[in-house]
Amino acid sequence: MHNKILEFILLDENNEPILSDLGLPTLKTGHVPKTEKDLLRVISLGQPVNVINAFAQEFIDSEQWEWASKYYDYLVELNEAEQYNANLPDPIPTEDGTLIEVEPKALPTEPVRPAVRTVDEVLEPYKVTIFKLQRQSQIDNAVIEISTGKTFDADEQSITRMANALIKHWQLAEDDTIPWSTADVPTGVMVECTKAEIVEAHSLATDHFATAWNIK
User: Of the residues 122, 151, 177, which one is the last residue of a structural domain?
Assistant: First the structure.
C-alpha cells in the first residue's frame, strides 16, 4: 500500500520506504501548498504566461500532495483499526451469563486519488481573463524605438501625452525641439527631441496599440 504514495515519502539508499516504529512510511516535508485562490491572485496580477503556467503546475502538485496527506492519515487509521481488531478483548459476561462480543473497529475508507490535471486543463476557465490581462500588460509596458534610435514609452497615457504635445506645438517646424522624457533615461530627465521625432514616436505607439488590441 505504500507504493501508492511512493513519490511522496522518504526512501532509503535502496529506494525502500523509511518506516516508523509503527511500520508506517514518512511523508516528505517542505512542500508549500498552493490553493486556487493563490492561483487567481497570480493571474489577476497580470504575470507573464510562463509564471502563470509554473504556478498552475505548483497548484496541480498541491492537489496531489493533499491527496497524499489524506492517504497517509488513512494508513494511520487503518493501522490503528487493524491493531485493535487483532487484539479484541474477550467477550464480556453479563449478570445473566450471556456474553457480549466486543465490536471491532470499522476500517476507514481509502481516499481516491484525483486525476493529475494538465496546466491547460487548470487554466482553461481563466483563458479569457489571462488573455485580457496579458494584452493590457503588453500595452502598459510597451516601448517603441524610432529611426534616430531614441525610445519612447508607448502606453495609453504616453500616447495621449504625445498627442497633446503635438497639438500644443502644431506651429513648430519639424526640426524644432520639444523637451521629452524618453524611455531610456530616468523619470523626469528631459531630452531634446525634434517635433518630427515626436510625430514618429506617436505614430509607432498608436500602431503598436492597435496591433495589441487586434491580437486574436
Answer: 122
Shared domain check, 76 and 8: yes
Give dist(CA 175, CA 76) in Å, integer: 81
Q: What are phi and psi of 77, to 5 degrees?
A: -65, -40
Structure-block grid coordinates of residue 93: 459476561
Q: Quote the CA–CA distance of 78 and 67 in Å, as a whole number.
A: 16
pLDDT digits (tens, 9 = 90+) for 27-42: 999 889 999 999 999 9
**Alpha-carbon span 124 to 109, nearest angstrom:** 32
Find the domain containing 58 and state its range: 2-122
d(C-alpha 147, C-alpha 37), whole Å: 46
Reply yes or no on whether the pLDDT at 133 is more than 90: no
Dist CA 93 CA 100 (whole Å): 6
pLDDT (tens digit, 9 = 90+) per residue, 72-99? 999 999 999 999 999 988 888 888 878 8
Quote the distance between the C-alpha of residue 55 and its chain's center: 3
H or E element, residue 9: none
**Does residue 60 lie in a domain region?**
yes
- Is position 204 within any domain? yes
Q: Is position 61 within any domain?
A: yes
| pLDDT bracket for residue 59 (50, 70, 90) | very high
pTM comes to 0.68
| pLDDT given for residue 80 in this prediction | 93
**Residue among 35, 108, 31, 103 at smallest CA distance from 73:** 108
